[in-house]
Specification:
The chain contains 9 helices and 15 strands. The chain has 246 residues and is α/β, with parallel strands linked by helices. The two termini are 41 Å apart. 29% of the residues are buried.
């Protein structure tokens, strides 16, 4: 049975004790430590590298959402809070689940089931060091922040990246967040077998290509499943044909 190293982050000691008691029956959950506020939570996440955190939102100092924004690598998150008005925001950051206090055992069971049945969990097991050293595949998840909004998105959902001045616009679902980085820096980190540099301005996810047609000056034009059309330069078209041919 796969086990998940788990950290509890809540400023209320009794809340942590209640959660520990409820989690005793789940042998796949290994509680490795606790933290009583966001600052301590950040420190222990960096030191212990848990697979999962149970996280309160309203805490002294920085709250749960602000804590997540300060993390470079984010474990799976289950929010546990007394307030239901944050539910939408929780799922905007791709939280695994959102449980209200007092914790209902059946709701907790549902959250644990989501954890143990999640197909892509293997990718989140990577350590921070190995992640920084390796090329990222479509199965990896990345943290994206644009202003006050943040997402934890699987790269398979990213269909295109567009250079926009000093920023890169990332296309996934209905979102287009801007990240202050160069397109070249993304090209260096993404698997070239899956993410193709179409021209100076665009990188496309080959899994999202729905059609291809010849274009001007020996180039190509591809259409993605969401309707975006991207020109592949003449130079890159040669490489594209070599990659995609039998």
């Amino acid at each position: 049975m796969k086990t998940f190293k788990t950290l509890l982050i809540d400023d209320e000691r009794l809340a942590r004790e209640e959660l520990k008691s409820l989690l005793k029956e789940y042998h796949e959950i290994e509680i490795i430590d606790e933290a009583k506020n966001g600052e301590e939570g950040i420190q222990k996440i960096k030191e212990l590298k848990p697979d999962l955190i149970f996280l309160d939102i309203n805490m002294p100092g920085i709250n749960g959402f602000d804590m997540i924004k300060q993390l470079e690598e984010i474990p799976r998150v289950i929010f546990v809070t007394a307030y239901d008005e944050y539910a939408l925001k929780a799922f905007e950051v791709n939280a695994l689940d959102y449980i209200l206090k007092p914790v209902d055992p059946e709701r907790l069971r549902e959250a644990i089931q989501k954890l143990t049945t999640e197909d892509d969990f293997v990718s989140s097991q990577q350590t921070i060091i190995s992640r920084k050293e390796r090329v990222l595949s479509v199965n990896d998840r990345v943290f994206i922040k644009d202003g006050e909004k943040c997402w934890f998105v699987e790269l398979s959902k990213v269909r295109m990246l567009e250079s926009d001045g000093n920023y890169v616009k990332v296309y996934f679902d209905n979102f287009r967040p801007l990240i202050l980085r160069s397109l070249n820096s993304f090209e260096d980190r993404l698997d070239p077998e899956q993410f193709f540099r179409a021209n100076r301005k665009y990188i496309i996810n080959l899994q999202w290509v729905s059609s291809i047609e010849n274009w001007f000056n020996g180039g190509l034009q591809v259409e993605l499943r969401e309707g975006e059309k991207v020109e592949i330069s003449r130079r890159q078209a040669i490489r594209f044909k070599e990659m995609m041919s039998l």
